[in-house]
Amino acid sequence: QVQLVESGGGLVQPGGSLRLSCAASGSSISTYRMAWYRQAPGKQRELVASISWYSGTQYANSVKGRFTMSRDNAKNTVYLQMNSLKPEDTAVYYCHADSMYWGQGTQVTVSS
Hints:
By secondary structure, the chain is mostly beta strands. The protein is built from no helices and 11 strands. Strand 9 (91-97) and strand 10 (101-102) form a beta hairpin.
């Protein structure tokens, strides 16, 4: 069983940056594919970024070039660096592990 706890969300102005963290416990995530999803009000949850066990990454077209996902297996943690944030990035961001486990989510609000 893996527990995931996201942190780092908040309110930021357009053009600003945030760094989300997802700390895992209960088991090592070093061999897991990890992902970040987001869900805006009234919309379906969508995949934002994923990272393989060997740190290969993939991104949604809407965030490519602005977001960077990384992992630190020694800390059992993954990150999402979000730059040049836009109002349309406003959503609850969820960490996802091994296509099975979900965190509770962290709110990101981009507004002036």
